[in-house]
Amino acid sequence: MAKSVDFTAYDTESFYDEVFDSDGKPRPEAQLLVDSINQLPPGDLLRRQEAIDQAMMRMGITFAVYGDDQGTEKIWPFDIVPRIVGSKEWRTVEQGLKQRIRALNLFIDDIYHDQKILNDGVIPRALIENASSFREQCRGLNPPRGVWVHITGTDLIRHSDGQIYVLEDNLRCPSGVSYVLQNRLLMKRSFPQIFKACRVRPVIDYPSGLLQTLQSLAPNTNEPTIVVLTPGVYNSAYYEHSFLAQQMGVELVEGRDLVVKDGFVCMRTTEGFQRVDVIYRRIDDDFIDPKVFREDSALGVPGLMEAYRNGRVALANAPGTGIADDKVVYAFVPEMIKYYLGEEAILPNVQTYVCEVPEHRDYVLSHLDELVVKPANESGGYGMMIGTRASTEERKKFEELIRKNPRNYIAQPVLSLSRVPTLIDGVFEGRHVDLRPYILYGEDVKVLPGGLTRVALRKGSLVVNSSQGGGSKDTWVVADSDEELTGLD
């Protein structure tokens, strides 16, 4: 007999739930989804989940895990119950993200030019000049339109108080948007009637928006040649690199496919060299040009930075942007917003202790059992310690690391990440989530409605990264009844 799966026994416990309120009632924007799932015939939801899993396998939707003994390529874990965001709340998120990226862009431009924010003492100069992500080679660069950060993925979390906080900014080579698009495609096929009834805002136009953003950077040409520069097939995000290139209709290249010729960047083709105008680079700063950064890099293009500095090619994102997603610098973004825009931050930061500051460091060292400690430039959940779950030995290790190199660490309170019902072994259980919306900055700033909801599939886990057992969900931004829906997923 087929098993019935519904929400009747779902326990919201003591966490903020994105689908149900504290009384166990569906939130208004989620009511139709909950009713629709509850009314499915026995076994139907499980069959739909299995069909999506099989489609992921057929489509080769994968990610890579470095150092995994069972192989690097993994099928992207996906859960069928979406995260739903109401239209009013989304407007606030959208406004906050636009505000934040404008301030961060002004900060980066200032840091590599006049450094007014340092001269005025808003941010300690040493925190910037001693940052591993600060690139002295980028001083004086002038990107097209003065925009340094064209593609951003900003991580948001909701605490038990219901407030949405910015957890971190990803400004170098943010990944994950390909999974947003593929998640939506598979969910739309699985629940076409519910999509229409719920008035879910589309995400399908992201590749065209990305292409327009890149085209807006092109120097002196109406029909620019654009390429996506990848480190190659062994990179963890290679699937995304190839997917976005295909969706935009541009070439996917590696460093060996490009050469600087007569001061211009050219692509090797069967018909000879073709000039390249814009490079969407998915390679870190250190590897893009061995003449300027790491001499041993075989991934980049010798002479690329000179061509870029001379305005003969555009790069997205611009080199040097990593200074603004350093986790220590993150602590000062509200001050940046006030300094450059004269506004209060719409989306608050998580309370952050900067270990380089003596009084902050003293507090952190005496409260290691209560805090999350993070290194300034690691990603993917690596290198951090959750004090409430760490052993005495782990806390001792981090105490030594902080004392040895305080500039490299911040600490934050352990937050109770909100949850979304998740299909686990045939029943719904709450699992913690975050949200990564994507922002494009070309002629204007545009925010993709929704983003990548990452879910910690392990019971009780707060780590949502796919490399550490996390998965994803579709994110439904519900439009107002009078809001026109443009585009079709």
TrEMBL record:
Highest rank taxon of the organism: Bacteria
Pfam families, A to Z: CP_ATPgrasp_2
Residue span, Circularly permuted ATP-grasp type domain: 82-456
Name of the protein in its database record: Circularly permuted ATP-grasp type 2 domain-containing protein
Organism encoding this protein: Thalassoglobus neptunius
